[in-house]
């Protein structure tokens, strides 16, 4: 099918983007070409450096930050660990109850840190008395969106640092998050990139509060000059927190992020939310203004109706993205008949 100016090979009823996004044809083609070069021995390591740079710049553009403020990694939790491991003993972290554990586990794994969970809807009002707030912009389980303006105001008033996980938001929700100390996102969901791609935006004044827990050759100022020997010599910007790249993932991410960066994300959000709220309305439920819908439903019945979805927190979770249509809404409705 063709949607938003490109082609997708998405089957009807695919509503599982919150788990795995489906790439546009040019993304899959770029990865396939690299696989063929690998298969035939034509590949050279340095040829992936431009892909990494393109993907980094694409993510930076989506967040409204500079490429030098973005670290590249393989997963959200691995990048969050650069923040969590740097926190000194006695740090008090505030989190949303039931948030995805890639956000909370890295902090809980630091024995000197206390993590307190509160309901998402009251989180901004509980910031006082905490040093760091770590929360997903959009909740994985049910699509609820944190009140970002209220959180920003509360954090600034309390002097608290903020880490945002945009894995369920970046790619469909226009984001004004450059104010946050750290913003992380995995690429394989709404960003339509291969798994093994993720990024962490680090505000310049937060670099000294971030630790390179997986310091490696690629995190050097000139990676090809830091492949052997000491002393430690990391890049002077957020690239100091880079992981050695997952090559094929970066190829796909470069193409996907450039494609998404050329879209009007307000239109993407209107499309996605319009379908999600249409489903809720036809089920007699109030609109929620998010691309993710969590339903009390029989997973077996949903699958029998040709719906590809996930079960999260005991409920069937569906998500609407670029390639979904009103026909997908009708397919879900038929599962409730």
TrEMBL record:
- Could you identify this protein by its name? Aminotransferase class V-fold PLP-dependent enzyme
Which keywords accompany this UniProt record?
A: Aminotransferase, Antibiotic biosynthesis, Transferase
Gene3D superfamilies referenced in this protein's UniProt entry, alphabetically? Aspartate Aminotransferase, domain 1, Type I PLP-dependent aspartate aminotransferase-like (Major domain)
Entry-linked Pfam families: Aminotran_5
Q: Which GO terms describe its molecular function?
A: transaminase activity
| Species per Swiss-Prot/TrEMBL record | Amycolatopsis balhimycina DSM 5908
Where does the Aminotransferase class V domain lie? 128-285
Task: Choose any GO biological process term that the UniProt entry carries and state it.
Answer: antibiotic biosynthetic process
Entry keyword Zinc-finger: no
UniProt superkingdom? Bacteria
């Amino acid at each position: 099918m063709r949607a938003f100016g490109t082609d997708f090979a998405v089957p009807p009823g695919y509503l599982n983007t919150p788990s795995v996004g489906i790439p546009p044809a040019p993304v899959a083609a770029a990865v396939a070409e690299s696989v063929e070069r690998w298969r035939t021995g034509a590949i050279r390591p340095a040829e992936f450096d431009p892909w990494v740079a393109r993907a980094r710049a694409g993510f930076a553009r989506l967040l409204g930050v500079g490429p030098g403020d973005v670290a590249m990694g393989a997963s959200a939790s691995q990048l969050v660990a650069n923040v969590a491991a740097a926190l000194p003993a006695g740090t008090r972290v505030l989190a949303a109850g039931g948030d995805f554990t890639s956000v909370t586990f890295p902090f809980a794994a630091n024995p000197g840190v206390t993590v307190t969970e509160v309901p998402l809807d009251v989180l901004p009002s509980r910031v006082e008395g905490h040093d760091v707030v770590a929360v997903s912009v959009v909740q994985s389980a049910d699509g609820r969106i944190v009140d970002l303006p209220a959180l920003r105001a509360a954090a600034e008033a309390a002097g608290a640092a903020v880490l945002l996980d945009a894995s369920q938001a970046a790619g469909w929700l226009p984001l004004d998050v450059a104010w946050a100390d750290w913003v992380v996102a995995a690429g394989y969901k709404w960003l339509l990139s291969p798994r093994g791609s993720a990024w962490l935006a680090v505000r310049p004044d937060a670099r000294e509060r971030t630790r390179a827990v997986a310091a490696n050759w690629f995190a050097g100022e000139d990676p090809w000059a830091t492949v052997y020997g000491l002393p430690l010599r990391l890049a002077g910007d957020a690239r100091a927190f880079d992981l050695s790249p997952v090559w094929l993932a970066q190829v796909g991410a470069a193409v996907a992020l450039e494609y998404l960066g050329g879209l009007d994300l307000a239109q993407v959000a209107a499309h996605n939310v319009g379908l999600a709220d249409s489903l809720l309305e036809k089920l007699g439920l109030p609109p929620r203004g998010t691309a993710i819908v969590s339903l009390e439903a029989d997973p077996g019945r949903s699958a029998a109706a040709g719906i590809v979805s996930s079960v999260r927190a005991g409920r069937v979770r569906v998500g609407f993205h670029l390639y979904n249509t009103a026909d997908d809404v009708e397919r879900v409705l038929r599962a409730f008949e």
